[in-house]
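pls design
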């Protein structure tokens, strides 16, 4: 069942949007910080230039500093934002020579400015100020006393300049984001183009077209394309197997039906009651064989079309008890009258496997029937169970040494002392309608194929081996289930 879990295009768009948003937020923070720094540097340079201009205007008269602030100094500080601009020239004692600052310069600031030019931000009378001060050496003056020049203005211009710089950056960023969005949409469309082309190729295919894909795909879709090719190959093999099975089944059913028709036609052409009775006996035997063949065909078709979910829901079954019941049933039948059908010593206690009762009975019935049909009268046929030690198997697909576990197995075996089967023929016996070249019996060649299908369904494996000095051993290996799961 296909369940749609969102859109791949939407997921890619969301991830790209999240990434762009995150990077954009970082860039905006950096742009804001950079605009603040740029405004600070620009206005601090103006304060420094104004301070130097004022310092050059300091004159000494009778040992006292005189200052006439040049208009150029104030023009340097004047901007279109109408900040409040102030200055102060202080003598060595901190007394104002000339000033329009509405507050006094603190002693600590003067000490720091005496060492090196000082720029600082202060909040005075509830308003933020930016001040710059420096001490002017008295070299070349008659007096040797230094003076300090302080200039300052409010921060409105700085904030306005920083906002203006940030707005420009933000405008460019928004334009880039919009352009990136358009390019991203185009990139998603181009990137997902191979998926649309592959979808169109698959939709144009006929239902019975199982050829490998003929399409160019990017590296990221190579595994998907290979998986589809493998699926088509399995479907092609399954379809060919179904066609072969249908053809073989038609042939196998046609032969006995044709025989029945011939016998009935001969009987109808005769006036002798004895010939009628012989024909009826032949028809009865042929109908029995045909019915058994049809039953085996139905069983094989049922096994091949059972779902995996049904196999996983199988309850534990006592294999030893099922073996005893099936053997007792077959021992009382007419077909086993001329054979020595027996049971080997079974393990103590129940032998729990995960299997359906009907499947085990069908499997055992086919193995016993094959042994009875393909061995001469008087042959010894023995059934039994054998517990096997733990077998190491991979836990998952990785198959590493650290991902292995031990699984206990049981081997169900049916052995006979008949003529046996040549080694080169044994693997072919698992195919439908394969009888190993034996034409001296009325078997259909479906028994071992049914047994193999049941073994695969139950997670086991079927092994055919020679029995010494002669005969055949068929062993079915099944994994044991946890006894705690048993009913």
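designed seq:
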């Amino acid at each position: 069942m296909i369940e749609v879990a969102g859109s791949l295009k939407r997921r890619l768009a969301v991830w790209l949007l999240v990434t762009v948003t995150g990077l954009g937020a970082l860039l905006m923070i950096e742009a804001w910080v950079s605009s603040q720094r740029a405004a600070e540097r620009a206005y601090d340079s103006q304060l420094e230039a104004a301070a130097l201009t004022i310092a050059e205007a300091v004159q000494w008269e009778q040992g006292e500093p005189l200052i006439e602030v040049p208009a150029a100094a104030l023009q340097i500080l004047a901007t279109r934002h109408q900040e409040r601009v102030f200055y102060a020239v202080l003598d060595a004692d901190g007394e104002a020579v000339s000033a329009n600052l509405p507050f006094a310069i603190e002693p600590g600031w003067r000490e720091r400015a005496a060492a090196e030019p000082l720029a600082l931000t202060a909040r005075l009378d509830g308003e933020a100020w930016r001040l710059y001060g420096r001490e002017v050496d008295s070299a070349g003056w008659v007096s040797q006393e230094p003076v300090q020049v302080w200039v300052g203005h409010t921060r409105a211009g700085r904030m306005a300049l920083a906002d203006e710089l940030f707005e420009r950056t933000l405008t460019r960023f928004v334009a880039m984001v919009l352009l990136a969005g358009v390019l991203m949409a185009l990139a998603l469309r181009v990137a997902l183009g191979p998926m649309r082309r592959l979808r169109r190729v698959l939709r144009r295919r006929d239902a019975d077209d199982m050829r490998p894909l003929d399409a160019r795909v990017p590296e990221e879709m190579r595994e998907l394309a290979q998986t589809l090719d493998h699926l088509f190959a399995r479907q092609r093999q399954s379809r060919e197997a179904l066609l072969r099975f249908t053809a073989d089944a038609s042939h196998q059913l046609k032969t006995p039906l044709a025989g029945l028709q011939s016998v009935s036609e001969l009987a109808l052409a005769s006036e002798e009651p004895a010939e009628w009775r012989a024909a009826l006996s032949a028809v009865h035997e042929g109908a029995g064989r045909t019915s058994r063949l049809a039953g085996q065909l139905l069983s094989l078709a049922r096994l091949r079309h059972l779902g995996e979910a049904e196999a996983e829901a199988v309850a534990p079954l006592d294999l030893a008890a099922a073996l005893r019941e099936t053997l007792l049933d077959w021992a009382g039948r007419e077909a086993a009258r001329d054979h020595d059908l027996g049971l080997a010593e079974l393990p103590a206690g129940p032998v729990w496997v995960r299997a359906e009762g009907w499947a085990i009975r069908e499997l055992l019935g086919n193995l016993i029937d094959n042994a009875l049909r393909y061995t001469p009268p008087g042959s010894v046929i023995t059934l039994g169970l054998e517990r096997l030690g733990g077998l190491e198997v991979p836990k998952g697909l990785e198959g590493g040494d650290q991902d292995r576990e031990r699984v206990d197995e049981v081997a169900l075996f049916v052995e006979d002392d008949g003529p046996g089967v040549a080694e080169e023929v044994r693997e072919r016996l698992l195919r439908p309608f394969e009888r190993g070249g034996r034409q001296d019996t009325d078997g259909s060649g479906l028994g071992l194929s049914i047994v193999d299908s049941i073994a695969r369904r139950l997670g086991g494996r079927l092994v055919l081996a020679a029995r010494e000095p002669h005969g055949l051993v068929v062993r079915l290996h099944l994994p044991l289930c946890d006894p705690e799961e048993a009913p």
